[in-house]
């Protein structure tokens, strides 16, 4: 029996893989600047799964929160403020400082931070913030009762917006905007609402599961060898990642009782936010010490150690942030309790 507790644990493992893939993507982009052996190109292509897996998982967890916790407006957005938006702003300031060698001080600087333009990957958080607002107000509109029909409308919205409707106002790319990801996010909702049927079907039909695994593996190989670059919002890539998401869910559900990685709320998100800072700091350090870094990236083992070092440092830093944000959350809750007692 697949319980919600086990499914949430499996999602945490998927998020960990996703965060690692995101790190791999930005790392290999740096390596390609100096060298482009096949393994680097392959990793760079595969790394694009990371963002889409995170997107589907975000939709799933949001649907779970609405269904099981039924948070009030204040409860829902307080959590997003503490765990999502404030760290997003902090990371925006950090990347501005690292890339511009100074603190933000103009209206344009502040706007770039809020719009997620100071780091190449912060567009995703700017988009996710839009999603949380829309998802909360549509939580009683898009439901399990109609999702099987609405999902096709959202598929059309995502396709049409990307190819026909997007305008680059304020210098924002298609990736910054919610319609670019709306179908992908609500696929997470659909999987949550039909999780019992989907997982039971795959568990009881191993031949179908093997076919899905084979197709998802073949798709990954195709993306690697194809001369065409499939970006994360490309619907072909989204569908392939969806199959991989389901395979990973089943895989980790079989292992969840044997894996003992402790769930830490916010860990994978903080890795996503701050790993690029370590990419910048590592690169600056090696430039200062050795004068150049190409000799690292031209050696496979040095490159892999470099990647491992960045991920480990990002993870350790994120663990510290998790503890800090927990304390902030407790302090916020205590302040709310004191205010309620005074009102009474």
UniProtKB/TrEMBL annotation:
Listed InterPro entries: Acyl_transf_3_dom
Protein name listed in UniProt: Membrane-bound acyltransferase YfiQ, involved in biofilm formation
Membrane topology: Multi-pass membrane protein
Coiled coil: none
Pfam families in UniProt: Acyl_transf_3
Subcellular location: Cell membrane
Presence of keyword Signal: no
Location of the Acyltransferase domain: 13-318
Molecular function terms from GO: O-acetyltransferase activity
Major localization listed first in the record, in broad terms: membrane
Residue spans crossing the bilayer: 12-34, 46-66, 78-98, 121-138, 147-166, 178-195, 207-225, 231-255, 267-289, 301-325
